[in-house]
From TrEMBL:
It comes from Tatumella ptyseos ATCC 33301. Pfam families: Glyco_hydro_1. PROSITE patterns: GLYCOSYL_HYDROL_F1_1, GLYCOSYL_HYDROL_F1_2. This is 6-phospho-beta-glucosidase. Belongs to the glycosyl hydrolase 1 family. GO terms for molecular function: 6-phospho-beta-glucosidase activity. InterPro entries: GH, GH_1_N_CS, Glyco_hydro_1, Glyco_hydro_1_AS. The active site is at E361. Signal peptide: none annotated. The keyword Transmembrane helix does not apply. Its EC number is 3.2.1.-, 3.2.1.86. One of its GO terms (cellular component) is cytosol.
Amino acid sequence: MKLFPESFLWGGAIAANQVEGAWREGGKGLSTSDVLPEGIFGGLDERGSEKEYLKDVAIDFYHRYPQDIALFAEMGFTCLRLSIAWSRIFPRGDEETPNEAGLAYYDAIFAELEKYNIQPVVTLSHYEMPWALVKEYGGWGDRQVITFFLRYARTVFQRYRHQVRLWLTFNEINMSLHAPLTGVGIPMESSLGEIYQAIHHQLVASSLTVKTCHEMIPGAKIGNMLLGGLQYPLSSKPADVMAAMQGNRHWLFFGDVQVRGEYPGYMQRYFRDNNIELHITDEDREALRHGVDFVSFSYYMSGCASAEPEKYLQERGNILNMIPNPHLSASEWGWQIDPQGLRVLLNLLWDRYQKPLFIVENGLGARDQLTADGQVNDDYRISYLNDHLQQVREALEDGVDIMGYTSWGPIDLVSASKGELSKRYGFIYVDRHDDGTGTLQRYRKKSFGWYQSVIASRGAVLK
Ligand code: BG6
């Protein structure tokens, strides 16, 4: 059995708004995540009242990070994917000068990681932007936001250039098509044209951020981040095959622009067919040319596409709606489990881009039981991760260049879609519940020791 390469990065992935809490501490401004306290698909609360939500404290990583990072180190992590909350650095988003307390907070985090030789992989924007940019500018619908984002990116590149060598621009950039308020700060009911215009501005910002990163931090690598929404044809009917190709292009389009630096031909047709006219300047076209160094993505599930989608019940999985695959089982949240799909996806992305790939999210959300003696026997999680990692190994054997793997939520955290804590992903159990009760104490689950042995053995213990 082949071992994973020595240089392969092993770790976990978290996002600021799902772990930190402390939403009003350290001079932080209000973000889109704070006003969607019950998740991406929950209601808006601009926080005029004193009502408290789970995310306000989350798992209190803001104060407990030394303990949590020590646990990650104990598992043998060589990297940790985390995000910087833009609204900690620029509370409104349009200031000239950053908030020093916000910058100092991440200094401390990176110093802690350095102690254990854990390499940070930093997402600049993971499902949150300063709320003032939404209220006063109309989010990414306004191209001034490109300037504000670049100011933020330059600020953190300058500050952390010695600590952070791996960066990601926008988390799951393709999700804006499904949740535009979280993705690009425009109303959920925006038209397709408005959504793509805002996305265009974000793509320009992403490309200019790649350029800026290369200029400011020689040797650093910066990638994009896609929600890997793999779709199979529901049947072998050619029309279904075409539907799956088109379904996949909805998300691959983002990668195509971010890797190749221009809009693909099939999108021109899509815009024509849907009467979408984007305002794209010559300067924008030039700005888009800076391709990423690597492609990162999340993968939880796959789904099916049909030429007659109205005939089938579509289910919302990880943000996308897809037709369930009759050959697969699903998690407690209805997300279909498809380890082999990960190999398919890795090969597909490698064939398409020939860029190193990084699996920066993969995991199983499940209800865990903490026993009276502080154990969590999460064999189902071990089995999910084992089967997916086996497929990563297969893809390596296929010749795919894979930089690393960070499982989603190495510690239980608040879910992005619904703002709940009962959906747990971690190797570490956090004693906190949907009703806000709990001690916040951390416990090692059975999967903790398992992941530790996977990393230590470079995959030899996988079954
Ligand atoms: C991805 C996001 O969509 O899926 C994460 O990047 C999110 O932020 C993860 O937490 C799992 O989704 P959920 O809704 O179960 O938290």
